[in-house]
Automatic annotation (TrEMBL):
UniProt keyword Hydrolase present: yes
Gene3D superfamilies noted in UniProt: HAD superfamily/HAD-like, Putative phosphatase, domain 2
GO terms for biological process, alphabetical: DNA repair
GO cellular component annotations of the record: cytosol
This protein's record includes keyword Hydrolase: yes
SUPFAM superfamilies associated with the record: HAD-like (SSF56784)
Pfam families named in the record: HAD_2
PANTHER family in UniProt: HYDROLASE-RELATED, PHOSPHOGLYCOLATE PHOSPHATASE
Full protein name: HAD-IA family hydrolase
GO molecular function annotations of the record: phosphoglycolate phosphatase activity
InterPro entries on file: HAD-like_hydrolase_sf, HAD-like_sf, HAD-SF_hydro_IA, HAD_2, HAD_sf, PGP-like_dom2
Keyword terms of this UniProt record: Hydrolase
Length: 228
């Protein structure tokens, strides 16, 4: 699916930066569970699962502010800390489920074999991203990892700017791949091509409206588009 009136841009990018949750892995169950536990700890109404999923991609404070708009800064910090604790507890208990989307490992391997440089830009923490990538045995495929621990929340372009610097790539040599409008807007702000995926948390129409040049319906479609 290409954006109306926008021709697909040919050529293989030098740097391909992926979002994590909703793009590389299906972490919605873990996110919804941890957020529900965090809100319950303070006797707050649990946000609807759909609203929680739509907040994925933002940094945790930004996500919580959207889910609890009446909370002050101290309450937001408390909920964020409770979320992190719930997530760590699930990880320690072996209950954390963040499966790779089927075919993603093969796609990443094909991109590296084709000479592409890979990176990640995510609202996860450093620790969370490291655990996720190590669990799936794919950490070695990425040369730059940018997280919410060191940057403003998406759609601020800081993560992509840091990824470009780390990879020695110019904006026109890079592409951002993600499942939310936040990813697409970040790419636009950084002057980087934006490609959406339809298996995540925002609708394809939202991704195109936010600046995606193309939205892949499947991982096979994404591979064909990137390596054509």
């Amino acid at each position: 699916m290409t954006a109306a009136g926008t021709p697909a841009r040919p050529g293989e990018p030098r740097l391909i930066v992926f979002d994590c949750d909703g793009t590389l892995v299906d972490g919605q169950g873990a996110v919804v569970s941890a957020m529900g536990a965090a809100f319950a700890q303070f006797a707050l109404p649990t946000p609807e699962a759909g609203l929680i999923r739509r907040s994925v991609g933002l940094s945790l404070p930004q996500a919580v502010r959207r889910l609890a708009p009446d909370s002050d800064d101290e309450a937001v910090r408390d909920i964020v800390d409770a979320y992190k604790s719930a997530f760590r507890a699930a990880r320690a208990a072996g209950e954390l489920s963040e499966p790779l989307f089927a075919g993603m490992a093969e796609l990443l391997g094909a991109l590296v074999a084709a000479g592409c440089t890979l990176g990640v830009a995510t609202g996860k923490s450093d620790r969370g991203l490291e655990h996720c990538l190590d669990t799936h045995g794919i950490a070695h495929l990425f040369v730059t990892l940018q997280t919410a621990d060191r940057h403003p929340s998406k759609p601020h372009p800081a993560m992509l700017e840091a990824a470009l610097a780390a990879a020695g790539a110019r904006p026109e040599q890079a592409v951002m791949i993600g499942d939310t409008a936040y990813d697409m807007l970040m790419a636009v702000e950084a002057g980087v091509r934006a490609i959406g995926v339809a298996w995540g948390y925002h609708e394809p129409e939202e991704l195109i409206e936010a600046g995606a040049e193309y939205v892949a319906a499947t991982i096979d479609e994404l591979r064909t588009y990137l390596l054509r």
